[in-house]
Amino acid sequence: MCYQYTRNVAMKTHQHFVDFAEEWEKMPVKEKRFLLAERMTKGFRRPSILRFWVKFDMVLAFLLDIMHQFDEGVVRWIIAQIITVDGNSGITKAQLNAIERLWMSVALPGHQNRSVRSLDDYKSWKAHELKFFIQHAAPFVLKGNCSEGFYFLVCLLSRIGWLVTQDEIDRESPKEIESRCTRYVKTFQDYFGIEQMKYSIHLMLHLLLVIKLFGPLHLSSCYRPENQIGRVTRKICGTYNNTKNIMDSFLKLQECTARMEDMLCFGNSKIVTTDERLMGVPASPYVIKGAAGTCRLSGQSNVIEDGEAYAKVRREGRRRKECWSRDRVHCFRRAAVEV
């Protein structure tokens, strides 16, 4: 689906989604499938119960994530055009080699132990690498190595990326952001064609609205949550840290708990004996606590073989209205009483 740029088009509102949801519920199934298959619903997938919430706006309640939309969306697509020889960027093989040499000579600030990766590996780049490339390196490495129209788009995109991620937005910045975003989308459509006007490019027109609602985009992006996920993962999976030891101990405790539950469920005597040996349990864990004290059963547990003794046990079970079958009742040779 392509989003053709048209000047001064009214943005969708919450009421648009409410009205379309009502129409959607009246449509035949065949028509719904056709609209979804042809992507003619323009972002609408199915009715949501959120439309019934008075204080919820289906448009303004959702913000743009600069990491996925801008860095991993628009910037990654631009890099794909750079490494395409004799494509829309007008870059030749010799120019691409020159761009690669300049890029590999760049040092990441604040990362003395990390070097940049080749442009051929752009699909595996992290979001912060894409951000660094477009905001700092791209205008430098592409200068004189691509067509003028493509270089203008890259420089314009670099400026936009820097403006929308500033720590503070002054009074003059919104006007510049709106002007540059509009110019970028229009120039992009003229240069690459309407067929390349994808959703991530269209969203460039809405960056200013998100800034007005939520402030600088990096404050509400996925960079911080993704960074915390990485930290937690490294702490859990690291070799030399306390968290791994805690996790290992937790797993051992869970395993021991499972084994104890198997032992307490009156299972096979051979399995119980094996569990006791593996876990290093010297005696049976069966304990009876009462007002007079504690009775701890010890020794090897066995099924009651004596028929007369088992008959007495069954009578006691019937008196308590419980089913005490032979495989659930065990006898012990010794018992220790603690008062």
Q: Which sheet architecture does the biggest sheet show?
A: 3 strands, antiparallel
Enumerate how many helices there are, as a single number: 13
Classify the beta-strand content into a percent band.
Answer: 5-15%
Average pLDDT reading: 79
Number of strands: 5
Structural class: mainly alpha
The strand line-up of the biggest sheet is 1-2-5
Radius of gyration: 34 Å
Report low-confidence residues grouped into runs of 5 or more.
none
Distance between the termini: 80 Å
Helical content stands at 40-55%
Name the helix and strand elements from N-terminus to C-terminus, one letter apiece: HHHHHHHHHHHHEEEHEE
The coarse overall form would be: elongated
Molecular structure report:
The structure is a single chain. The chain is mainly alpha-helical and 339 residues long. It has 13 helices and 5 strands. α11 runs antiparallel to α12. The radius of gyration is 34 Å and the shape is elongated. The N and C termini lie far apart (80 Å). The model has no long low-confidence stretch (mean pLDDT 79).
